[in-house]
């Protein structure tokens, strides 16, 4: 399935919350968490039930969330536990 993105008049690509979740392989709840924590902000002027996000901002929010998880866990994805 190909993701349909919205292209704004500025040439930037925009996605909804559900599309952002699909692109990043996370739940919509995770996207909502990124919004609450200030990692991601919707475009100004969007109706509350139809939020749009710049795709580049979604990428940046994912990185911020990952870095916060690494900081708080004391490890990163590349470390595995011995069996």
Overview of the structural elements:
It is a single chain. This protein starts with 5 loop residues before the first strand and ends in a 10-residue tail after the last helix. A hairpin with a 5-residue loop joins β1 and β2. The protein has one domain: Multidrug-efflux Transporter Regulator, Chain: A, Domain 2 (Orthogonal Bundle), CATH 1.10.1660. It has a three-stranded antiparallel β-sheet with strand order 1-2-3. It is mainly alpha-helical and 83 residues long. α1 (17-24) crosses α2. It is built from three helices and three strands; from the N terminus they run ββααβα.
Output the CATH class name: Mainly Alpha
**What proportion of the residues form beta strands (DSSP E)?**
5-15%
Kindly report the average pLDDT value: 84
CATH fold-level assignment = Multidrug-efflux Transporter Regulator, Chain: A, Domain 2
Furnish the topology, listing elements before pairings.
Layout: E1 6-7, E2 13-15, H1 17-24, H2 28-36, E3 53-54, H3 55-73
Antiparallel strand pairs: 1-2, 2-3
Helix pairs in contact: 1-2
Summarize the structure.
With 83 residues, this protein is mainly alpha-helical.
Summary tags:
83 residues; 3-stranded antiparallel sheet; elongated
